[in-house]
Amino acid sequence: MILTYLSSYKLFLSPIYVTPKPTATSLAQLYGQNLSSQIFIESSVNIEPSLPFLEDTNSTLYLRVQQFQFTINQPKLCDGIYGNQEKAIVVVCSAISNFLLRQAVRTTWSSEATTHGNFSSVRVVFLLGMSTDNKTEQLVHSESVKYSDVIQANFIDSYKNLTLKSALMLRWVTEFCNSVNILVKIDDDTYLNLEKLMKKIRSSHPSNSLKIHGLTFGRSRPVRKQNHKWFVSVKEFPYRHYPEYASGPMYFMPVEAARRLYGVVETTRYISMEDVFVTGLCAEKAGIKRAKVAGIKTLGSGSFRLHACAFSRELAIHHITYRMLITRWKYFQLVKSKCKSY
């Protein structure tokens, strides 16, 4: 029987007692034949294999984030952020093959987040997984050496591993960003208006309250169609509604909230929807509220169009290509003085 909303995710988040680390030597042994098609952490001869989950007696999966290493790291990046008030680290969750998008981000909106830029209290870093292609790995290494803004962990970079990527983001901020007040999470195909972001942060003082700020959804239903991008099985999440959560393309929170989220990541039952897992289930368990923020738009959704002054008016714009980002940014530089009063 499917439980009602109020009781469902409360039970889903109830305290757990887990067994010791499994000793299975194969993924089939670890997950069982019926779960073999749902293994989300892939292995490669080039990457040291590790078991990503701890399984309890009810076959429920829990992430084991500590088993992964940052093979490329920027441990001192947050220490170089200057500012007397709110200091922010923007973590761009990027697909490893999206070299052009990362370069477009560097030459557009994040170019102002430097020591001598307009937003010296902000830094931007890209978080990646690994590839089974050696050439791609070599290119990422060269990119990291050139720009010093890449973090990489030893898991296969794929859409199904986004929950793990977001959990590793929480771990990285917890371990290496003690001097920063605000964490901003954003996808690489999302434009971020740094001026509007910092105005919102300075006016609302989010570091004083444990809230996740973003485009929030309440009582949304899991997608049960197997071929859908957002499919979640009844076994994975057997309830009618998700708890309130902030949409994954862009959200921000105080670093203290990120630390508390990280504190419950390994004891919160795994779900493949990364935004539901982090900002919904983990947030509910950690006692962190969600706050709706205006100005987060998605191209192709509703009536929104990328007009000349959108880069000035909106906080974030999702589903933007690298060509669109570069060309529209250049044009925006020419007209932005007129957009101030738009």
From TrEMBL:
Tell me yes or no: is Transferase among this UniProt entry's keywords.
Answer: yes
Q: What is this protein called?
A: Hexosyltransferase
Provide this UniProt record's keywords sorted from A to Z. Glycosyltransferase, Golgi apparatus, Membrane, Signal-anchor, Transferase, Transmembrane, Transmembrane helix
- State the similarity comment: Belongs to the glycosyltransferase 31 family.
Report the top EC class in one word.
transferase
Span of the signal peptide: none
InterPro entries assigned to the protein according to its UniProt record, in alphabetical order: Glyco_trans_31 (IPR002659)
Protein localization? Golgi apparatus membrane
Gene transcribed to yield this protein: LOC106458938
Query: What organism is the protein native to?
Result: Limulus polyphemus (Atlantic horseshoe crab)
Report the EC code(s) recorded for this entry. 2.4.1.-
Q: Any transmembrane segments, and where? A: none
A Pfam family that the UniProt record links to this protein: Galactosyl_T
The record gives the membrane topology as: Single-pass type II membrane protein
Superkingdom: Eukaryota
User: Which PANTHER family does this chain map to?
Assistant: BETA-1,3-N-ACETYLGLUCOSAMINYLTRANSFERASE, HEXOSYLTRANSFERASE
